[in-house]
Design a protein that fits this description.
The protein is an all-alpha fold. It is 71% helix and 0% strand. Helix 6 (120-139) crosses helix 9.
């Protein structure tokens, strides 16, 4: 699972001048900001929800909440960090509001973004490993998946994970631990089967 790294977008960081224009109600600036950040926000929502339609809705909710709450952004943290928190809240709200569980594999869009050094064979091997991990994350129970994605993909602290999921820190630790354990079991068993063939 590719760990989300804000630094890889350092050259694409949202300029503070653009944020200030958005705060003053400049709609053209807001459109520019959304275009600059949409892919990352959608990717976060998709990783949590595992459903493209739900991810689009959560992304729209996130931007609506961000627009409404933008004046409250003081710049204590990076804008992208603040926006990811808004997006994770929107995705978790969507997850909670779903009446029934709808699991679908989302294809290899995210995998296409993975860059790997080395030859074609090495890249193919890395892509297969990432694909297996993405599929394993996809079949985790929703409460485990949300916890492990927030912790291991987006690098949130246990305290932040607990806050986003509305649970205690102890419960957050347990969920992350159990999710990792289940992932290891799924990947280890699948790896053993591959080697035995």
């Amino acid at each position: 699972m590719e760990r989300h790294n804000e630094n890889r977008h350092e050259t694409e960081a949202v300029p503070s001048e653009l944020i200030e224009r958005c705060k003053s109600g400049d709609e053209a600036a807001w459109t520019e900001l959304v275009e600059a950040t949409y892919r990352d926000v959608y990717s976060l929502c998709l990783r949590i929800l595992r459903d493209p339609d739900d991810a689009v809705e959560a992304t729209q909710d996130a931007y609506l909440k961000a627009w409404r709450g933008l004046k409250g952004f003081r710049g204590d943290a990076r804008f992208s960090t603040w926006l990811y928190r808004v997006a994770s809240n929107a995705a978790i709200s969507k997850l909670r509001s779903r009446k029934r569980r709808r699991e679908r594999e989302v294809g290899d869009e995210a995998l296409a973004l993975l860059e790997s050094p080395g030859g074609t064979e090495e890249r193919a091997s890395v892509l297969l490993d990432v694909q297996r991990l993405e599929q394993a994350v996809g079949v985790l129970p929703e409460h485990y998946r949300a916890a492990v994605v927030l912790r291991d993909v987006y690098g949130m602290s246990i305290e932040e994970v607990a806050e986003k999921l509305g649970i205690s820190e102890t419960a957050a630790k347990v969920r992350v631990h159990r999710a990792r354990k289940k992932l290891k079991e799924m990947l280890y068993d699948a790896g053993e089967e591959e080697r035995e063939r």
